[in-house]
Design goal:
The chain is of the alpha+beta class. The protein has one domain. It is 19% helix and 29% strand. A four-stranded mixed beta sheet has the order 1-2-3-4, covered by helices on one side. The longest helix has 12 residues. The radius of gyration is 11 Å and the shape is globular. InterPro entries: Transposase_IS66_Orf2.
């Protein structure tokens, strides 16, 4: 499943911070097989957080 956060986030957060934010705020844990998409304030960039199965969550950034 893919979830999209509607509010912008601080793009200085790393994988662990974004995973925690997704779990606490959105109720979706990236370590349970979901992908969460976060956007920057200007909506010109996104970060996608997923669990790759081998370690901490991976972040994919796109501009």
């Amino acid at each position: 499943m893919i979830y999209v956060a509607t509010r912008p986030i601080d793009f200085r957060k790393g994988a662990d911070g974004l995973a925690l934010l997704a779990k606490e705020t959105l109720g979706h844990d990236p370590m349970k097989g979901v992908a969460v998409v976060f956007r920057a304030k200007r909506a010109d960039r996104v970060k996608i957080v997923v669990w790759d199965g081998s370690g901490p969550c991976a972040i994919f950034e796109a501009a």
